[in-house]
């Protein structure tokens, strides 16, 4: 019996090494789908509760009673793709749309005023099937006024399956909708609702007059909405890992493989600087599965200049160790210095405190003496006054009122 192969990926048979092996992608997709479905059925049999990660899709050819779960492409780069987080997601067209159901409801968030966009969707030239899916058109001002609380935001989130937003106001929605929308899988998808110029380029500036927005023709709006729904969203952040949804468990292995190839090509050509030289690995995974490798880089660096020689590496390590020792010594000094200072100054502080208390007691004694002397003087003064008013013969007070003097004079 031949030994089993332990290799993670297979080498490309012909052409450049910087490309996906189709057979490897198809094999990994089939294995992942089989594992997700078997695990979902097993959990459904053990517990009658429905999976919260299930995605309803009525138009699927395979009707799975357990539901479907998303399939993600995980792309890891050697260096950061962007320096800061982007609020406006990118879009990569997919050969197999992630939203295939014609019964899915769409909420369109537009720039103010919203009436022009509603009239545009109600126009006879707008496709009837797509118009029936767009069940609500709401302006940015109403979103800010009506959906401030978490309860109202959760209610809006549960009422619709897909959320589209005018790309002119897409960067303002995270502040208004918060983690209720941007913490899950129903993030608003940007859509271009502006008319094209003569060369097919959309108008990128917002008119200064907020009362008269430029609205694209109905046919163009329908085309942009269909394109946005069929694209994969790319949320870039300052990190080396990016996850992109490429399908669900009710897709076939070939559909997953086609979407993976389209997303990888779009990422390499549009978003990843230096292309394949900056990609470290590509995997696919489910929400609760291990990541299956599709492509692994043979080198862990982007350019030859990024690799240091032995002497350079030793110099860098010594410098880092010296800086570490210096920082550690400074921290120890900062920690020990206050302790030594308190021990040395403790006796001095105690002597200073005793001297201060003795001085306060002396002042209090002096104040008591002065107050007692003042009281004694006041008592002596009052005694002398009373002595002057007494009659020496009778020993009584010699004070005579005016009435007494008048009586004595008349007698």
Features:
10 helices, alpha/beta, elongated, 411 residues, four-stranded parallel β-sheet, four-stranded antiparallel β-sheet, single chain, 45% helix
Tell me briefly what this model is.
The protein is an alpha/beta fold. It has helices at residues 22-46, 115-121, 128-133, 140-146, 150-159, 173-182, 218-229, 253-271, 310-389, 402-410, and strands spanning 70-77, 90-93, 106-110, 134-139, 162-166, 189-191, 231-234, 241-248, 279-285, 292-296. 45% of the residues lie in helices and 13% in strands.
Account of the protein in words:
By secondary structure, the protein is α/β, with parallel strands linked by helices. Helix content is 45%, strand content 13%. The protein is built from ten helices and ten strands. The strands form three sheets. A four-stranded antiparallel β-sheet has the order 8-1-9-10. It has a four-stranded parallel β-sheet with strand order 4-3-5-6. Strand 9 and strand 10 form a beta hairpin. Helix 1 (22-46) packs across helix 8 (253-271). The protein is elongated and about 140 Å long.
Q: Which outline best applies?
A: elongated
Number of helices: 10
Given as residue ranges, the uncertain stretches (5+ residues, pLDDT < 50) are: 56-66, 204-212
Amount of beta strand: 5-15%
Outline the biggest β-sheet. 4 strands, antiparallel
Q: Work out the number of β strands.
A: 10
Distance between the termini: 161 Å
From the helix content, strand content and strand pairing, which structural class follows?
A: alpha/beta
- Pattern of helices and strands: HEEEHHEHHEHEHEEHEEHH
Let me know the average pLDDT.
78
Radius of gyration of CA atoms, rounded to a whole number:
43 Å
Query: How are the strands of the biggest sheet laid out side by side?
Result: 8-1-9-10
What proportion of the residues is helical, as a percent range? 40-55%
Query: How would you name the oligomeric state of the polypeptide chains in this document?
Result: single chain
